[in-house]
Specification:
A hairpin with a 4-residue loop joins strand 29 and strand 30. It contains eight helices and 44 strands. It is extended. The protein is mainly beta and about 650 residues long. It has an eight-stranded mixed β-sheet with strand order 19-23-24-32-31-26-28-27, covered by helices on one side. Strands 2, 4, 5, 7, 8 and 20 form a six-stranded mixed β-sheet that branches. Strands 10-16-15-12-13-18 form a six-stranded mixed β-sheet, with no helix packed on it.
C-alpha cells in the first residue's frame, strides 16, 4: 500500500454554520467546511453517533437542514482520506429561533412637562432585542438588556403632541409587529417632584452598608436616544448650500456622530465601547486622544467564531484565509475598509482607532519591517480596477515609535473611505519606485502652488477574488518609520468618482539580541531564539508551531542579531541561547490580538569579568607578580646566607 495510506486527514479543520453567526430563524442553513489536501470524503450529521449517515464527496460548502424545534443545534462532521482514514469529530453550534419578538412600553406617561426629561421604559419578550423607534420623522434605536428590560430618554422636548412607533428585532433577525404610543409635552403638565423618603426608608438606607448586597438587581439607567432624520435634508442632497465651501469642507471632514454611526453599523461591538468611553457627539471625539480602542479583525468582523475540536485536541485560534471564505462569508465583509492578514492568512491583524493632530479619527497600524502583508478590501459597487501605493512619510526615532505602542501594539488596521478625497490624485503618477506625488491638502484639494512632496515606495494592483472582494500581498517597507498605504478604487460606472482609502502605517524594526558594552550595544549573531506559547488545554508551555503560520521557530540571528514573530492571541515567552553567553529565559507575556513579537534582549557574557580587565591593568598585575617573585627570591637568598656564613 502507498506510504500515506495510514495517514489521517491533514489539519486544520473547519466547520461553520452560516459563517459562524450564532443565531438563525430558518432551519435551512449553509455549512462552510475545510480540511487538508488529502481529504476525499466527509460525513455530516445532526447527531454525534452519525446514525444512518454515509460518506459523500468532500466539498467546501453544503446546504443543510437543522432539526425541528427552536433552541441550540449542533452539526457534526468527519473527514476521510481516499483510503478511509478519518479525522476527529468536528462540531459547530447555532441557535434556531423562529419566534417573533414583541415589545411593550410599560413606563410611559400621557403628558410630560417641558422642564423634565421624557423617559420611556418597558420590556421585550426576549433578551437583547434591538428596537427601532420612529418619532416625528426621525429614527433611533436601542436594545433591551439580558432580562428584556429597557429604559430610554429623549431629554427635554419642546411642547407638542408626539406619536411614536416601536419595532422589535431579535438576534435571529426576526422582526416583530410595530406598536404605537402617544404622549404630549406641555408647560401645564404636572412636574413630578422628588418624594422625601419615609423614616423606614431612611433607616434602611443607613443600614445598607452593614448588610451585604447578595442578589440586589442592578438599577436600570435610561439610555440617551440619538435620532437621525427619516429623509435627508436638502443640504445633504447637494440641492443648495448655506455654508462657504471651505468651511463646509472642514465640516464634512470632521468626525461627526454620523461617522460614529457608520462605524457602529459596520462593527456592532463598537457601540458598547463608545458608550463606555462616553463618545456620543462630535465634541466627545477628543476622548479618543487618551483611549486605546480596537476593532475586530476580518474573521471576527464577518461573524466567524472559534471552531470546537473534540475530544482532546486543541489548536491555536486561526483566522480564515480569504481563499477559503465562501461567497456568503465574503458578502459580509464591511465595504470600503482595508483589512490585513499575515502568516498565510492565518493571523488577523486587528484595528486601532486614534485621534490625529488635526482632530480627525484615524486608523493607525504598527507592523514589522520587510514582512509580507495581505490586504483585503470589499468594494460597494462594481470596480474597473483597484490599485494601491505605499507612500513613505517620515523616518521616526525610537522615541517617536514607542509613543504608538500603547495602542495595543496593533499590526493591522482599516481605513474609512473619505468621499471628499475621491479625486484621482495619483493621475499621471508613474508606477515605478521612488516616484513623487503631490499630496492632497487638508481640505481635500490639490494645491500645486505649495505642494507637500512624498515618496512613493511601490505601486501594486489588487486582484479580484469575486463577490466584490479584492486582495493584494505587499511587502512592508524595509525602513522603519511612518508610511501610508493608499488604495484607489476606480468604478466601472464612469459617472462615479474614484474612491481613496488611506491606511497610516507605523513600521517597527525587528527585535534584536545584543550585548551591552559601556554605553554601546553589540549585536549578537548566531543566537537561537525560541518562542513558547501556553496551551490552554494542557496548561503547559509548548514550542510555538510556527510552520503552521509560514514562519520558523526557533530562529537563528544573522550578523545584525535580528529576529521577529507574528503571532495570534495567547500567552508566550522567549528563550535565547548563544555561545559564550548565559541563557536567557524570559517572563511570560500576553498578546491580545495578532501582533508582532520583537523585543530587544540583552545577553550576559559568561566571562563578563574579562571585560573589566584591559592591557594596562594586566601589565600592572604582571609587574606586581614579578616584584613579589623577586622579593621572594631575595628572602630565600638571605635565609641561605644566614645559615651558611663564610
Amino acid at each position: 500500500m502507498p506510504q500515506d495510506a495510514y495517514d489521517k486527514p491533514i489539519a486544520p479543520f473547519l466547520l461553520l454554520i452560516n459563517n459562524g453567526y450564532g443565531y438563525t430563524n430558518n432551519r435551512n442553513v449553509v455549512l462552510s467546511l475545510s480540511s487538508g489536501s488529502n481529504t476525499a470524503k466527509m460525513a455530516v450529521s445532526n447527531s454525534s453517533d452519525f446514525s444512518g449517515v454515509g460518506q459523500e464527496d468532500y466539498k467546501t460548502e453544503k446546504d443543510w437542514t437543522l432539526p425541528i424545534g427552536d433552541g441550540p443545534k449542533i452539526v457534526y462532521v468527519k473527514f476521510y482520506t481516499k483510503y478511509g482514514q478519518q479525522s476527529d469529530v468536528i462540531q459547530s453550534n447555532i441557535v434556531l429561533d423562529t419566534k417573533i419578538p414583541s415589545i411593550e412600553a410599560t413606563n410611559i406617561k400621557n403628558e410630560y412637562n417641558v422642564a423634565e426629561d421624557v423617559i420611556i421604559g418597558g420590556n421585550t419578550t426576549e433578551p437583547n432585542v434591538n428596537a427601532v423607534i420612529l418619532m416625528a420623522g426621525r429614527y433611533g434605536s436601542f436594545s433591551s438588556d439580558g432580562n428584556g428590560q429597557w429604559l430610554v430618554t429623549f431629554g427635554k422636548m419642546p411642547a407638542g403632541n408626539y406619536h411614536i412607533q416601536l419595532t422589535p428585532k431579535d438576534l435571529a433577525e426576526n422582526t416583530g409587529i410595530p406598536v404605537y404610543y402617544d404622549f404630549s409635552v406641555s408647560e401645564s403638565a404636572p412636574l413630578q417632584e422628588p418624594t422625601q423618603p419615609s423614616i423606614l426608608e431612611r433607616i434602611k438606607s443607613g443600614l445598607e452598608f452593614l448588610v451585604p448586597k447578595v442578589s440586589e438587581p442592578e438599577k436600570l439607567e435610561p439610555v440617551k436616544i440619538i435620532t437621525v432624520p427619516e429623509l435627508s435634508p436638502d443640504a445633504f442632497k447637494s440641492v443648495w448650500n448655506i455654508l462657504p465651501m471651505n468651511a463646509l469642507s472642514k465640516f464634512v471632514l470632521a468626525p461627526l456622530p454620523t461617522d460614529v454611526a457608520i462605524l457602529e453599523k459596520k462593527f456592532p461591538e463598537l457601540k458598547k465601547t463608545f458608550g463606555e468611553v462616553g463618545i456620543s457627539k462630535a465634541t466627545d471625539v477628543q476622548k479618543l486622544e487618551s483611549a486605546n480602542l480596537t476593532l475586530p479583525g476580518l474573521s471576527q468582523a464577518i461573524g466567524i467564531k472559534g471552531v470546537e475540536i473534540s475530544p482532546g485536541k486543541f489548536t491555536q485560534p486561526k483566522a480564515i484565509p480569504i481563499a477559503k471564505l465562501s461567497a456568503t462569508a465574503k458578502s459580509k465583509i464591511p465595504t470600503d475598509i482595508v483589512f490585513a492578514q499575515v502568516g498565510g492568512g492565518l493571523v488577523d491583524l486587528n484595528i486601532g482607532l486614534s485621534l490625529n493632530d488635526n482632530g480627525q479619527i484615524e486608523q493607525r497600524v504598527s507592523t514589522i519591517k520587510a514582512k509580507p502583508l495581505q490586504l483585503i478590501v470589499r468594494v460597494d459597487k462594481p470596480a474597473k480596477e483597484v490599485t494601491g501605493y505605499i507612500v513613505f512619510k517620515s523616518k521616526n526615532s525610537a522615541e517617536e515609535q514607542s509613543a504608538y505602542l500603547p495602542l495595543n501594539n496593533l499590526t493591522a488596521s482599516l481605513s474609512l473611505a473619505l468621499p471628499n478625497l475621491a479625486k484621482a490624485i495619483f493621475e499621471g503618477v508613474p508606477s515605478v519606485e521612488a516616484a513623487t506625488v503631490i499630496k492632497n491638502s487638508e481640505e481635500g484639494d490639490l494645491d500645486a502652488a505649495s505642494p507637500e512632496r512624498e515618496l512613493v515606495l511601490s505601486h501594486f494592483e489588487y486582484t479580484d477574488t469575486g463577490n466584490g472582494v479584492y486582495t493584494a500581498t505587499v511587502q512592508a517597507p524595509s525602513v522603519d518609520g511612518e508610511c501610508e498605504v493608499v488604495t484607489v478604487i476606480n468604478y466601472e460606472d464612469l459617472s462615479l468618482p474614484s474612491k481613496e482609502i488611506r491606511l497610516v502605517t507605523i513600521v517597527d524594526p525587528d527585535g534584536y539580541i545584543y550585548e551591552k558594552n559601556g554605553d554601546k550595544e553589540t549585536r549578537i549573531g548566531g543566537a537561537i531564539i525560541s518562542l513558547y506559547w501556553l496551551n490552554p488545554e494542557t496548561k503547559q508551555y509548548e514550542l510555538w508551531p510556527a510552520k503552521e503560520y509560514q514562519q520558523e521557530n526557533p530562529q537563528t540571528t544573522d550578523v545584525r542579531g535580528t529576529y521577529s514573530f507574528l503571532v495570534p492571541e495567547g500567552y508566550y515567552y522567549l528563550t535565547v541561547n548563544a555561545p559564550g553567553y548565559s541563557s536567557y529565559d524570559g517572563k511570560p507575556f500576553e498578546v491580545k490580538e495578532g501582533s508582532g513579537v520583537h523585543i530587544n534582549i540583552e545577553m550576559k557574557n559568561k566571562y563578563w569579568w574579562l571585560n573589566i580587565i584591559d592591557w594596562k591593568i594586566l601589565l600592572i598585575v604582571i609587574v606586581l607578580l614579578l616584584l613579589l617573585y623577586n622579593f621572594y627570591r631575595d628572602k630565600i637568598r638571605d635565609s641561605v646566607i644566614l645559615k651558611n656564613p663564610r
